Amino acid sequence: MTNITASTTGAQGVAEVIATFEKPIVFGMPGGHTVQIYDALRDHQDTVESVLVREESIGTVMAEAYGRLSGRVAVVMAQGAWVLGAGGIGVMEAHLGSSPMVILIDTTEGGTYSHHGPYQSGFGGYGAYDLPTAMAAITKRTFVATDPVQAVQMTQLAAKHALDGEPGPVAVVFHSDALLNRFTEADAARVFIDRSYLSPVPTTTDAAIADAAAAIKGAARPIIVAGNGVRDDAGLDALLAFAEALDIPVATTTSGKSVFAEDHPLAAGVMGSFGQNSANTLVGDSDLIIAVATKLGSTDTIDEKPELIDAGRQTIVQVDIEALNINWTHPVAHGLLGRAGDVLPRLASAATGVAAGGRMRVAQVREQVGYFEEIAASDPDAQVVNPRKLARTLGETLPANAVVMCDAGENRIFMLHDYQVRQGGVLMQPNGGGGMGYAVSAALAATYTHPDRQAVAVTGDGGYAMSLHGLMTAVENKRKVLVVVMDNQALGWVKHGQGERSFLADFAPFDLGAIAAAIGCTAITATSDDEVRAGVAAGLENDGVTVLVVKTNLTESYLTIQTSMAGVSHEQVTSKTA
């Protein structure tokens, strides 16, 4: 059954498709010819939730975080020039970090005048910029629709490609004719609004499962390395059940932090340059690695240190939804294609009887090398807070199931290393592109994916200044968000990386709380550990947006908490994207 008739415009057809998405939501702002789609969405207000943002980057980051948290596509819709020019942060993050997203944008090309380079034209003709080519560089796939049938079918295919295999952002670039023109009767018969274009989920063979299970049974010190791709509910449950059934320790990658509770007796912590020595020790000492929904990239393996992972001395079992990811960075002995939620239960059943002594091994390593070690209280006379202590305090005072979003820079390193995620909690960072200005918009998205849980943004003062549009959007939409700002009046990562020759890394002492209050937030400033705890408590009680500005010191840095196995890695020599 279809609602497309000979009188339907392409824009109305696109709105019909959006309404068929699972829990459809649109983040964006009307502009160009996308105004026609927004107008058509007026007839779908009972089905489609539309969120007006104040700047395109807010919309793309919200959609990226929404997709990563929920496993569903969110739609970003706005004028193409500004999604490309202002909104690239969220699109690039989704592309590099594998988050599903559908981007619906127009070329504003001027119709029959497009070859004369009219104002804002983006269809690639003379005097115009080439929007489709530019978007193709930062998306999983980009479609170009030139008529109403393509507008509908390509929107359906965008959702397919965003979700199938390794997720990612997919764009549909509309020519004006695709949205303004109407279907013919013959055209209407070619579209199927009520049909799904999604591919079947790949399933690995029973023989491959049996071979991998035999390798696990023969291992003396197996370990699980879990990545970001485990975040859907089925994957999280399957990972926990698998680890407990076989008594195997679990280390997570940086992007996988919080897919396994860090207070669990099988938790090794985060591996890599800025994770825990316990994780690196257990991974390095293992004779078999079960890599689940992770590419085992160089960021996680400290630039492929053989002391951590070495296919020559370790057997690697890799589980991934995307075939290209298996055997990408390390040769594996057993590649299992499929979703973690489907593969791990089958693997556990085939490996019945394995008892890998994981709890005992984890306890011994924690005793030997430490695990979330104690951090000294901040100096009350200095009127600044140790940022590592702040991260630890947030882990102790926020609800266990809080959804915490970090920004780029040192704040995310402190949270990665010192914030201990408890069962049911989420902590995510911009791990793909790693741009500043991410946390507030991502936390705002969490209020839509998990409206019954506390959404928290942790950012530095640099990222905070880039997020004021997001704060305004949060206030306008009456969202409940706690924003914690580490205010050290500097670009900490840059300043510490420069050493004794610091240059262009310091900020003027703006009153960040006053700025938040002027926007309509509840503003609190903390200069001690006790004031941090009081501020968090007040923010949890507030039903609106709370901005807790914490004055932090510059004594701690990312350099002081790197793991003992790390030298100077690729991640450390980057600056803003750290």
Structural description of this entry:
The strands form 3 sheets. Strands 2-1-3-4-6-5 form a 6-stranded parallel β-sheet, with helices on both faces. A 6-stranded parallel β-sheet has the order 9-8-7-10-11-12. It folds into 3 domains: 10-188, Thiamin diphosphate (ThDP)-binding fold, Pyr/PP domains (Rossmann fold), CATH 3.40.50.970; 206-369, Rossmann fold; 387-573, Thiamin diphosphate (ThDP)-binding fold, Pyr/PP domains (Rossmann fold). α3 (56-70) crosses α17. The protein has 578 residues and is of the alpha/beta class. β13, α16 and β14 form a beta-alpha-beta unit. The model has no long low-confidence stretch (mean pLDDT 93). The protein is built from 23 helices and 18 strands.
Tally the beta strands.
18
Chain-averaged pLDDT: 93
**Rg calc:** 24 Å
Fraction of residues in H or I helices: 25-40%
Q: Strand order, biggest sheet?
A: 2-1-3-4-6-5
The CATH topology of the largest domain turns out to be: Rossmann fold
What structural class results from the helix and strand content? alpha/beta
- Biggest sheet record: 6 strands, parallel
| Large-scale geometry | globular
* Fraction of residues in β-strands: 15-25%
Annotation field: number of helices? 23
The CATH homologous superfamily name of the largest domain equals Thiamin diphosphate (ThDP)-binding fold, Pyr/PP domains
Q: What is the CATH class of the largest domain?
A: Alpha Beta
CATH architecture level-2 label of the largest domain:
3-Layer(aba) Sandwich
Q: Which residue ranges are poorly predicted, with pLDDT under 50 across at least 5 consecutive positions?
A: none
